[in-house]
Amino acid sequence: MSVTASPSLALAQPAGPAPVPLEKAALTAVALGLLALLAAAFDADPARARLSMYAALALVSGGTLAWSWQVFGRGPAGVRQHGLWQRASTARGAIAWVTGLVLTGFYVVLYWFPGLLENLIRTLDPFSQALRHKAADQWFLYGTFYTLAVLLMGGRALWKYRHSPYQRIRTASVMFFQLGFAFLLPGLLLAFQQPEYYFSYFWPLKYDYLFPGTVSSLVQNGGLGVFMVFWGGLMSLVATPVLTYFFGKRWYCSWVCGCGGLAETAGDPYRHLSDKSRLAWKWEVRIIYTVLVVIVLLTVLLWVGASGAVPALEATTQPLSKAYGFAIGAVFSGVIGVGFYPLMGSRVWCRFGCPMAAYLGLLQKHFSRFRITTNGAQCISCGNCSNVCEMGIDVKQYAQRGEPIIRASCVGCGMCSTACPRGVLNLENGPREGRYQGSQLIHADSLRILS
Questions:
Q1: What is the pLDDT at residue 20?
Q2: Partner of 203 for a Cys bridge, out of 145, 236, 253, 364, CB 3.0 to 4.6 A?
Q3: CA–CA separation, 216 vs 306, rounded Å?
């Protein structure tokens, strides 16, 4: 029986082993690092604050990697889910609530009260000057923390899933794109006095990249700006449908996207918390496609207004774009999308609010070759597959019936296949013919042919 179907039954499962001294030492280092970070935030002396920041980053990084190696790197390889519903950190207990409040509070301060982070921002000035040739700001601080989280928790994932070549390569991919394309490259562009551009984010996720104001600003920067506009349009309107046809939405959501990268690394401990109920799925469909429709209409209206065909429209659409940026770009994707990891799972934003996920999902469900095939005859109904699905898909129900999984929400992370002890689930990019045909039907057809 699935652990997610009945948390009370999970309490009967044996708890994980008690922490060993090395594990405790690593966690102590992380705790000391967080205290040093707090000291840097409130220390008015710049030199002392910078020293505290460097100590914090070293302690948190070293402690996280040491803990990950101790817990996942030394023992036998494989997906271990013991005690998930017994820990206060992963079962919506007190630690989870405190973590959620801290994350939510950080995003609120980052977006609307950045002055409170001034001391932390100034500690990164030397790094920012070296990379971008300009002083640090709140977004450089955020980008540094974000990238560090992906890299450190990516190291954890590499140890945890080292038995799976697919998971190793996929984790390395999101780490590479976050560090290279979403952090270093935009900084280097600023160093060469070029527009700060994120080549791994596309419309409608990075919604303003196809807004007339952004397009006009980029074009004025010369050849590189023109290429950026061309790249954004090509990736959004041409490459995305083509790549999704062949590989499903996983090529982006689980391999490239920074939002997905954070969810798959820092959010991995919370993936089992995603709601698998039909009610949650209904709200998912209502909200995410509404967001997609809104951003498509807003983009069209902005271009109509910019064309001058309807003079009064431009004055109306500008406030609408700001309202969208506040409600969706800040509150939903940041405050809720990450702050609610410990309470609702790691893909809250991807599942309920991301317009790129909705766009890719429509393509995947109706036009793609991608599917997850199942072999119902081999399924033992352990529920591991459903437990690890961060998108709220009750995978076990498909596996029991031997039906292929073709869902718009599936990001192709492959964790269901990785966690299956029987090899029941397989990610495939097969021909569209027979795409919806279950493996049991295929098996029956084979028997008829053999007889």
A1: 76
A2: 236
A3: 10
Dihedrals φ, ψ of 450, to 5°?
Answer: -70, -30
Residue with tokens 């090395």: 22
How do residues 155-203 score in pLDDT, each as one tens digit?
Answer: 999 999 999 999 999 999 999 999 999 999 999 999 999 999 999 999 9
Helix (H) or strand (E) holding 359: helix 355-367
Range of the domain at 445: 370-450
Task: Give the whole-angstrom CA distance, residue 234 versus residue 90.
Answer: 41
**Has residue 357 been placed in a domain?**
yes
Neighbours of 394 (CB within 10 A): 19
Half-sphere exposure of 83 (CA within 13 A, CB side): 8
Give φ, ψ of 414 to 5 degrees. 80, 5
Residues 6+ apart with CB under 8 A from 120: 37, 40, 41, 49, 53, 141
Look at the chain and report how many structural domains it folds into.
2
Q: For residues 393 and 347, what is the distance between their CA atoms, to the nearest angstrom?
A: 12
C-alpha distance from residue 4 to each of 82, 156, 277, 347, 371 (Å): 13, 23, 10, 16, 23
- 425 and 352 belong to one structural domain: no
The answer to whether position 41 is within a domain reads no
The answer for 9, left when phi > 0, alpha when psi is -120 to 50, beta otherwise, is alpha
Q: From CA 400, how far away is CA 393, in angstroms rounded?
A: 14
234, 329: one domain: yes
* CA distance linking residue 232 with residue 214, whole number of Å: 11
Please give the model's pTM, rounded to 2 decimal places: 0.90
Out of 1-5, 103-107, 403-407, pick the least confident. Answer: 1-5
Q: Do residues 411 and 350 touch, judged by C-beta distance below 8 A? A: yes
Query: What is the CATH number for 379?
Result: 3.30.70.20
148, 63 in Cβ contact below 8 A?
Answer: no
Give the integer Cα–Cα distance in Å for 439 and 382: 19
Q: Which amino acid is at 262?
A: L
- Say if residue 22 is exposed, middle or buried (CB neighbours under 10 Å; 0-12, 13-18, 19+): middle
